[in-house]
Amino acid sequence: MTDSVIPAPTPASLPVTGTTAVFPVGRVFCIGRNYRWDRQDTASPVDMPPWFMKPANAVVPAQGELPYPPGTSDFCHEVELVVAIGRGGSDIDPAQVEAGHIWGYAAGLDLTRRDLQQQAKRAGNPWEAAKAFDHSAPCTPLVPAQVCGHPRQGEVWLAVNGTERQRGDLSELLWPVRELVAMLSRSVALQPGDLVFTGTPSGVGPLQPGDVVSGAVADIGRFSMTVCSPPEPAWRSASASMTGVSS
Ligand code: MN
């Protein structure tokens, strides 16, 4: 047996509704535009949608406090259906995706530092700084497909301080779940533990410290969180108190 030279990272996981069991999270795939955002939207399901990733440890329970991330002044919400892969595979037949590969579903948030995303788009840079930060993928507990089936319709909504910001329906997904998962499996070999965020309806917008962000995906998951300011690092307040003091 090989010794670890540092403590092994804590594996990420999501609770499973109605049990004490957890779903171990491997990788997090996120699909770009997958709903029409307006009538003029020319997004077409015949084009492969862009996808990007978040680290597994960005997945946190969608409850309690949501830290406002550093390095942004445009912290945005995107409510999404999340698919949990139970059996992996490459080049999966779309007709086999639901019964053969999907373990369950959750409601999730693809939180985004929108200002950094716009900068990255303009510069042709990668999106990680905008998408792959700590706490950027809150999820409700997973519901097994054995319990909820494979939803093809149902409301997807999000409100901030009780005012609705986003509303769509799973029936409006440009790429249905079975097509998305099949498409991804033609690009990478999917593995048990992978999550797929399936895209967000129109109405994305900024969050501020103190906001209560709530929402739901069909009957699968409902969440409510309060955006909180990050604590001031001790070194920064310490250095501020040093201002003007010679040493
Ligand atoms: Mn998204």
List the helices and strands and how they pair.
Blueprint: E1 13-15, E2 22-24, E3 28-31, E4 51-54, E5 59-61, E6 63-67, E7 75-77, E8 79-85, H1 94-101, E9 102-109, E10 112-113, H2 114-123, H3 128-131, E11 137-139, E12 143-144, H4 145-148, E13 155-160, E14 163-169, H5 177-185, E15 195-197, E16 205-207, E17 212-217, E18 221-228, H6 234-242
The structure holds manganese (II) ion.
How would you explain this protein's 3D organization?
There is one protein chain. This protein has helices at 94-101, 114-123, 128-131, 145-148, 177-185, 234-242; strands at residues 13-15, 22-24, 28-31, 51-54, 59-61, 63-67, 75-77, 79-85, 102-109, 112-113, 137-139, 143-144, 155-160, 163-169, 195-197, 205-207, 212-217, 221-228. With 247 residues, the chain is of the alpha+beta class. It has one domain (13-242): Fumarylacetoacetate hydrolase, domain 2 (Alpha-Beta Complex). The strands form five sheets. Strands 4-3-15-8-9-12 form a six-stranded mixed β-sheet. Strands 6-18-17-13-14 form a five-stranded mixed β-sheet, with no helix packed on it. Helix 1 (94-101) crosses helix 5 (177-185). The longest helix has 10 residues, at 114-123. It is globular.
